[in-house]
Structure formats: C-alpha cells, structure tokens
Amino acid sequence: MARGTASPEIEQLIQLLARLPGLGPRSARRAALDLVKKKEQLLQPLATALATARDTIVTCEACGNIDTVSPCTICRDETRDRTLICVVEEVGDLWALERAGVLQGLYHVLGGTLSPLDGIGPEDLTIGKLVERARDPKVVEILLALNATVEGQSTAHFISDQLADCGVAIYRLAHGVPVGGELDYLDDGTLAAAVKAKKMV
Amino acid sequence: MARGTASPEIEQLIQLLARLPGLGPRSARRAALDLVKKKEQLLQPLATALATARDTIVTCEACGNIDTVSPCTICRDETRDRTLICVVEEVGDLWALERAGVLQGLYHVLGGTLSPLDGIGPEDLTIGKLVERARDPKVVEILLALNATVEGQSTAHFISDQLADCGVAIYRLAHGVPVGGELDYLDDGTLAAAVKAKKMV
Ligand SMILES: [Zn+2]
Ligand SMILES: [Zn+2]
C-alpha cells in the first residue's frame, strides 16, 4: 500500500464508482468501503447484477429502449397502441413515462438532442429511423415528449420539419412541464397532466 | 417489461446501487442507465473491479485494515515505527490519516464505537486484541484517533481504562479536530495539526 492510498484493487474500484453520476470522490470511497464491509450482502450481489446486465441488456433495434430482448417488451406488446409513437431524448425519459403509466403507444428514443456546438447533428441521433417509422401507414400520431429546454425544443422543431410530409399528426407535451425542466425530475401527476393536455404542433 | 418498471435485470441493478451510501433511488436509476449506456468503458470495468475486490480483499488479522494480504502492507512495512499504534474507529479513518501522511506508526481498527443502546459492547469491537497488542514490550505509545463525537470519546475513555496497566503512554488527538466532527471529513492540514499537537491522556 503506497503512502496515502488504499490497495490498487480498491483504488480501481473507487475510481470507477466515482464516475457514476451522483457519486463524487469522497462518496465513492465510502461506497467502496461499504461494499468491502458488506461482501456477502452487497458486493457479491452487485458484481453479479453488473455481470448479468453486461451479458443480457441490449438496445431495442426498433425504438432504442434497453431490455433483455430486441425488439423490446414494449415493442412486442400487442396490447399497445401502434398508431402512436412517443419520441423521447433518453431511456430515462421513457422510464419516467412508463412509471407514470400515461402512454399507451410505442416509444422512440433519440439518444440525445441536436447540439451543433458539441458537433451533435441529426445523423448522431435516431431521427432518420424515426422518419422511417413515421412513414408506416399504421402510424397516425407522433408525440414529441422532449425536455422543455432550449436543446429539447429546437430538436423538436427540427423533427417536426422532418416529419412534415409523413402524413402523421405531430403533438408536443402540454405546457404542464415547467419551462427549463427535465422530464425525469417530474412527478407522475405533472407528467399525466402534460400528456392529457397535449397540443397539436 | 411490467408497466412502470424496467426489466428485472435492470431493476435488480438499481435496487443494489440504491443501497450504496450517497445514492438514492433516483440517482441509482441514473447510475444504472449510465452503466448500461457505457458498457465497455464503465459497466464492464466496474463488474471486473467488484469481482476482483470480492476475490482478493481481506481484513488484516493484525490491525483490521483491508488489503489483498494479511497482515496488511502497512503491518508488513519494516520502515514503520512499531512502537506506536494509532487506534481508529473505521478503515475510512485509517485511509484519511494515510492520505494526510502524518502517521509513521501502525494502526488498529476498532470496527466502530461502544453503543450500549444499540447493544454494541467491548466484545463487538477489537478492544481485546488491542490490549493484547499493547502488552507487547515493543509498543510504547497508543494514539487514540477516534472521532470527536460523544460515542468516540466515551469509547476512547473506556479504552484508556483498559490500557491503564499495559505500560504504554496513551495519547489522544489534539483539539484541532472540530468538536462533533468526523475524521474522514477533515482536510489534511487539520489532521496534521491534530497529530502534531497530540495531548497525553
Ligand atoms: Zn422497443
Ligand atoms: Zn494490518
């Protein structure tokens, strides 16, 4: 053990934990200690869960959701409304809408927002695939459930231009979503209200 | 995928991540998503690091430190001052002192503090083993580096009583440590000052 450091194995664990969103260097150190202390109850199950996730989780080729099957369970679910596609930025937004239980249709995960300054253009998102899906005559409605941020709204604007000749009705979420807010931080009631009062673009 | 939930494999991962100190349910969900998104760069290395920690990390039979060898690297280090034993509550405190680089001696990790209300008595900590170590004629000085909390100080008081006839000089950290503060939260300078101005008990 070098002066001032734990063993390399633990240092490596701390470094990786510190890269998780929400954990800084100090809390990563506490988490590593806690893991080692609770070897049977926490470290072992977490190691197994990560290995399982690594070996089983795939991205749905249809909608971009993550699941253990592709197409994902939502895309396979015959009871869902195939005339509606709800477009979200990230999988976390899809989860938020599913938790709220307010969407009967399918989803489309963009994988982010347009950001010319960061070099993120339409080809870096799944916009081409969305246009393809929208051309399917079965699809009647596209709901753009993007974050109410500048990036989210300019991406929504770009997408509705792209979808203009696809023969679909394009909706956005109602302004129940606080301006500047992010979907994943909202309560179920606000999400439900925003879906219910959706406005045609 | 059940309504409102991710796949069982991801739910399991979220549940376990939420048990790490510093991560609540929401940040555990974000962390899980981030892990799945960064499979090669984060999920795979973290799974490996956890498996390595599980298979290699042991508790030092001499001092209670955690390392890949027992006795630990500190206990094996022949350049360290074997006349001094620094007593700490937890391994995290040992790490804090090592990071500050202010201790030339060995350590002794108690594994907590006395807490009669929680049913934690002397036999639940490594106090007996400490008394045994203190009886070694080579040991001249015991530094009680416990937290400046009520529990830490009453445990220190109990230990100095136990060590009374061991023929060692007993020290506590100087009152550079803020009253009510915990070692692991202090900066190196404060720790160094506290060690330097140590007071005889
Ligand atoms: Zn899907
Ligand atoms: Zn040791």
Write up what this structure looks like.
The structure is a homodimer of 201-residue chains. Chain A is an alpha/beta fold and 201 residues long. Chain A folds into two domains: 49 residues, RecR Domain 1 (Helicase, Ruva Protein, domain 3, Orthogonal Bundle), CATH 1.10.8.420; 135 residues, Dna Topoisomerase Vi A Subunit, Chain: A, domain 2 (3-Layer(aba) Sandwich), CATH 3.40.1360.10. In chain A, 42% of the residues lie in helices and 11% in strands. Chain A contains eight helices and seven strands, in the order αααββαβαβαβαβαβ. The first copy, chain A, has a five-stranded mixed sheet with strand order 4-3-5-6-7. In chain A, strands 1-2 form a two-stranded antiparallel sheet. Chain A is elongated, with a radius of gyration of 20 Å. The relative contact order of chain A is 0.10. The interface between A and B is large, with 59 and 59 residues. The structure holds zinc ion (ZN) (2 copies). One zinc ion (ZN) binds next to helix 4 of chain B.
